[in-house]
Structure prediction request, 386 residues.
Amino acid sequence: MAGAQNELSVAERRRLREEERKRAAGAGQATPAGTEVAIVELANNPRNAREELEGLEGLAHTYSESGVLQSLAVIPAHVFQAAFPENADEVGAARYVVIGGNRRLAAARLAGLDQLPILVNRKATTRKAILIAAATENVARQELKPFEELATIEELKAELGTYDAVAQALGKSAGWVSQRRRLHNLQPEVRKALEERTEGMTIELARDLGKIKDPEQQLAAWQKEKALAAARATESGSGKAAAGKPKAAKKLPKQSGDSAGNEPDTTTKERRDACAAAVAAFEGDASRLHIIALQLPTEPDEAVALASHWLGEAGIGASALSLPSLTGDEGHERQTRAALALSLAHCEVHLTNVGPDNPAHARAYLDWLATHADYQAPDAAHTLTA
Prediction:
């Protein structure tokens, strides 16, 4: 009997909590979170950072087949209009404003859907809170293009006062915000390349170029990177034309032979393939390799050219070696990878141009490759003692 009373007590408590929740909903919520509403009651956010909504046709086809499974984040229209009176007319007679899911809303309209699932955000009631909620939705889903992210950051900064406050509001680091602010410094030609996704341009490269304040130096760095990308594309096309040609051969720049410009032999090619693989995937500590490389008298330009090629093949970009970009701690991972590539290149150029005249350095370098790059010289004893 006591057990039944306890069970009844638990059930009663659950019932009372449910009734209390419903009373609260009736008092302050016309529409519970997680319900569906007519699509005509929804308005796009007039302040949405996304300038273009891409891929709507494909998304609309999916929605017409399966419906919209993910709820849109919305706020009551009267709350939005009170916070942004300058945009009140754009909301019109809608009941809700979408702050997360404007692309889904546009695709659903294209698909001819009548209703959509929504989640009502009732905590975002001020201008600042609404901006943060919308920005967080977009940033978390990685839905913004680079310059849209930048515009979002600047709008939040105008509201919050500092970039540190923006980072905190978005749950990001100060470095994350700083990286995106560099896009302010891009020259028009570089900006256009990023917007049009020109061959060789990546968001990582654009941020590095943004650190170069001098316009001419920035443009020169971009032209150099673009030329490298074009060379890689040409080289890749040539590789496809030659039936049966090993894919690894395209990793070797013509200038990477000896100082006279001769092509490297098979052993050198295999060794440099191992170097290229290490640049792309090595995750350990390369301190020993750096110590070896620093003791080698090597022609800097030749080593930089070889390292740039490996970085390009790895998708990191030769700009990681650019001296004007080596400020602060931004891009630490890319700079670590660039240091690895440059040390390998110094060792390679020295071994190719000079030969194993210094058995200690050659032995140490080849030992590092054998340990960290899955490489073993085919005739190690002869190489190290010749």
